[in-house]
Automatic annotation (TrEMBL), chains A, B:
SUPFAM superfamilies to which the protein is assigned, alphabetical: C-terminal domain of ProRS, Class II aaRS ABD-related, Class II aaRS and biotin synthetases
A GO MF label: proline-tRNA ligase activity
Record-annotated Aminoacyl-transfer RNA synthetases class-II family profile domain positions: 102-350
HAMAP family documented for this protein: Pro_tRNA_synth_type3 (MF_01571)
Keywords (A to Z) from UniProt: Aminoacyl-tRNA synthetase, ATP-binding, Ligase, Nucleotide-binding
Annotated Basic and acidic residues bias: 53-71
GO cellular component terms attached to this protein's record: aminoacyl-tRNA synthetase multienzyme complex; chloroplast stroma; mitochondrion
Official protein name in the record: proline--tRNA ligase
Comp. bias (Low complexity): 40-49
GO biological process: prolyl-tRNA aminoacylation
UniProt-listed PANTHER family: PROLINE--TRNA LIGASE, CHLOROPLASTIC_MITOCHONDRIAL, PROLYL-TRNA SYNTHETASE
Enzyme class at the top of the EC tree: ligase
Organism: Corchorus olitorius
Length: 552, 552
């Protein structure tokens, strides 16, 4: 333990509430935090204004310290301790904070804005593909959950139950929705009568609750936000097409917006959603090379329609059970963005989902320079806002420009524009890229002339967007290794990489791999190599390669 | 009871689930439904295709009947039974349905689209006025609720409590948020240190739970959707300004978007939010002249900051408690829209929040007319969509044009465009207004030429928007009566109207009015008459007039 070296950074550790009586060590264990280390690259890389000394006293409130708390923390280097780095980034960039109840999370404005960017894109795509938004109640009668056998098995250990309402013990316990298939089917059964009512294609943006034991901000929390799509179709073919269409929407989103080169594929039977016939997934490689399941789309077959009697009269007058799908992406995706692109300096955001795409830092020393610089900065901000960009002008006088450079780099803003007195005279600005550190990423003398500036900034943002994706692709590809035997698989996994190999072995073998290596089948990727394949475990013929990896 | 005259219309009454074993009469009582009456103006007003006979058998499923169920129901005339009319409109227009748990509601796509229109407008206004969206967990430790004395008194009878999580009894019961002031203050206490952290202005879109005994779709449900704004300020003046600013945002929204001429004002002490110093409200008059509290904004003073120790260091280095506000609008507002504008035919939606602003109905008889008519209809749809309008082309062949006219009128679509073979030849269309029934609202020969058509349609939509507001204003004003004595007040209330009169009497007198008349002080309106005033109850001098009315 190195906690004595440096005091913890999360404001929640200083909570004056009833929870504060727990020691911070307990809290850290409770939240699976590791204490941040002493040497922080963020402070080290500060170009100016040396970091103020950390003089907090654990458990004691000092107002001066707190005033600085938000901005002068140190981020553990990513290479040193990925998990500590992740938590430091979330705290320092003010993405989220811990809620008072174990495993819950408060999503702060900067983190929520990333979620809003995800929503804005997907919401349009869902409507374009024929889905309507609606809202189902979050309280589900306990008996509903029990109707679909594998569903109850999968979810019952994770349920939060309401047993008291309006001061009275309830006759039937209510489940706080962990997912909505059951209540959706209860309602679909009332709305679907004929083939003319199909397909029925809906989506809801909602909160869901799963009583997880091991939590981690964004990645796995007791309550999280998501969208869940639910559809009903007249034929199995249509349901399959829909499930595939939606995993494709997610894949495009991941590549084009989040610059995350996910691998889309099919889950193994062992990893399939509780109640689904097939689960499609997008798997992302995080910076520590662990896999993150970033979105799933399920072909539910007739499992829920049989359990809930969701039938329709087909064109021949016959009653049939509907074929269904469900699909979801959650606030976990925000964790995926952090862990894909971040570096020792902090967050690095793809321009298309960055809450701030360009930060403008005015620089002056003498009083007589101030007006000119601030006017120029405002006019540059206006030009870029008019061009549809998300711009932040940081004109506070409480901080030095150097401090601001570091702060906004840590917050992952893709581009920084600096404007000083000399820039004002020459009618130009200095532009720095977040993804290329130091002088290499800095260009001087970009004209303030609106059309030139707008074009330059937009081109750079496009370049950053592409560059982040390319970098992630090359990281991913250099960490996936083809294996043809279990020995090779074990070695690759022990190196922290992903193993890809032909697989046609049993569920028992798959579980054995998990026990012995910690890795699971992430998916059978859609993209399959040509040629005959021999199962790495059994030596039998295999139809497909599977990807094995440790995962979140 | 007239339930034997006609069978019930809500699909939920035919639920095949475990809940179906309850008789429909029980269900109706449980849901505060009244059985719809036999004579329905909707079917009567059908211009063509006589309504098919209602041949359902209560409790028995007939697939043929169900196929027609959604569209051939009868709406109780509004004048006959306002409550039955309201529930019929919600069922027939597919705005919402009952959830499986008592008092919960499923918001269906058409109803949710109205909520989305509300969100789209307000979300922009909140950001323009400096607020950021974020998200707080919905589970609140029970001890939090107890910290603010009047808050716990107000909310504890309505709480839903989670007592079991992950299969285990919890050490501390968790409240499913009824509102978030407590958890917000718990977090604000950790984030606010200095005056430089103020003002802190946030908003969240979320679901909330209140264990209400008497529920009604949209108006009062066990779970509902809302936005809740929460702000913290350095001075009481700033907090007051913020509370007033937000009630003003709501007022403008109500007038300009929803065409609801709400009366903004201040709540009496008796009606003030549990934990607030002052509550501002917008009060709307529904079609039955009952008042609906459609939005509130609270000046919380230092009540929560003292309870939670939310302090900041001011510019002089002194520790002070912050001054706060909170404000909310919920899915209840959708109920307000229905009950303000609807008529015997069904829903009537203001164009600015209508999910469909223009419906296009192609009309043909002979096969050789079909292609020409459908092509023209598609091209008209395209013209209007390109102009940014929300357009629905109803080209299904399963229904007659007359049936479609009625259906979309019932759904409240502001404008209908009819296109038949003769219109195709003349290059023109027929346009009907939802707000002016029959021939008066119908205009022939509007050119299909894009610029002419677009201008005509947009002008008509603007006219409808204004006309709905004017109509609602004149209805409101003809139903508010100035009173100067308690006798007059009682008479006005007994006539179902609103009474406005000078008031400076005690809380006890206010409660007596409620007991004796069923009316409460809806607000002290911001707009006050000039001159000296004498309290209608006590004869003492009064500073203000108050508005009394029965309410939802």
């Amino acid at each position: 333990m190195v906690s004595s070296l440096r005091l913890p950074t999360l404001t929640s550790l200083f909570s004056p509430s009833s929870f504060a009586r727990r020691s911070t060590v307990t809290l850290r264990r409770r939240l699976h935090l590791r204490p941040p280390l002493a040497a922080g690259s963020y402070a080290q890389s500060a170009a100016s204004s040396p970091p103020e000394t950390e003089d907090r006293v654990e458990g004691k409130k000092s107002s001066r310290v707190q005033e600085r708390a938000n901005t002068d923390r140190v981020i553990t280097p990513r290479s040193q301790d990925f998990n500590a780095w992740y938590l430091d980034v979330i705290a320092n960039a003010e993405l989220a904070d811990y809620g008072p109840v174990r495993g819950t999370m408060v999503i702060r404005p900067y983190g929520y804005a990333i979620w809003e960017a995800i929503q804005d894109y997907l919401n349009v795509k869902f409507k374009e593909t024929g889905h309507s938004n609606m809202y189902f109640p979050q309280f589900i009668p306990y008996s509903f959950i029990e109707k679909e056998a594998s569903h109850v098995e999968g979810f019952s250990p994770e349920l939060a139950l309401v047993t008291i309402g309006g001061g009275k013990e309830l006759e039937e316990k209510l489940v706080v929705r962990p997912t909505s298939e059951t209540i959706v089917n209860h309602m679909f059964t009332q709305w679907i009568h004929s083939y003319r009512d199909l397909p029925l294609m809906i989506n809801q943006w909602a909160n869901v609750t799963r009583w997880e034991m091991r939590t981690k901000p964004f990645v796995r929390t007791l309550e999280f936000l998501w969208q869940e799509g639910h559809t009903a179709h007249a034929t199995p073919e249509e349901a399959e097409e829909e499930a595939l269409q939606m995993i494709d929407v997610y894949t495009k989103f991941a590549y084009e917006q989040a610059a995350i080169p996910v691998i889309p594929g099919r889950k193994s039977k062992v990893e399939t959603f509780a109640g689904a016939d097939k689960t499609y997934t997008i798997e992302a490689m995080m910076g520590d090379r662990k896999a993150l399941q970033a979105g799933t789309s399920h072909n539910l077959g007739q499992n829920f329609s049989r359990a809930f009697g969701t039938q329709f009269t087909d064109e021949n007058g016959q009653r049939q059970h509907v074929w269904q799908t469900s699909w979801a992406i959650s606030t976990r995706f925000v964790g995926g963005i952090i862990m894909t692109h971040g570096d020792d300096t902090g967050l690095m955001l793809p321009p298309r989902i960055a809450p701030v795409q360009v930060v403008i830092v005015p620089i002056w020393k003498k009083a007589d320079e101030k007006t000119g610089v601030l006017n120029a900065a405002s006019s540059v901000a206006e030009i870029l806002k008019t061009a549809g960009l998300k711009v932040k002008l940081d004109d506070t006088e409480q901080r030095t420009p150097g401090w601001k450079f570091n702060f906004w780099e840590m917050k992952g803003v893709p581009l920084r524009i600096e404007i000083g007195p000399r820039d004002v005279s020459s009618g130009s600005v200095v532009i720095s890229r977040r993804d290329i550190p130091g002088k290499q990423g800095k260009v001087f003398g970009i004209s303030m002339e609106p059309s030139i500036l707008e074009a330059y900034v937009k081109d750079r943002l496009d370049e950053i967007q592409s560059s982040l994706l390319e970098r992630a692709i090359s990281f991913r590809d250099s960490n996936i290794v083809d294996v043809s035997s279990y020995e090779e698989l074990k070695e690759v996994i022990s190196l922290g990489k992903w193993a890809r190999g032909p697989w046609s072995a049993s569920d028992a073998d798959e579980l054995r791999v998990k026990e012995e290596t910690g890795a699971t089948i992430r998916c059978y990727p859609f993209e399959q190599p040509q040629g005959t394949k021999t199962c790495l475990m059994t030596g039998n013929t295999a139809k497909e390669v599977a990807i094995f990896a440790k995962s979140y």
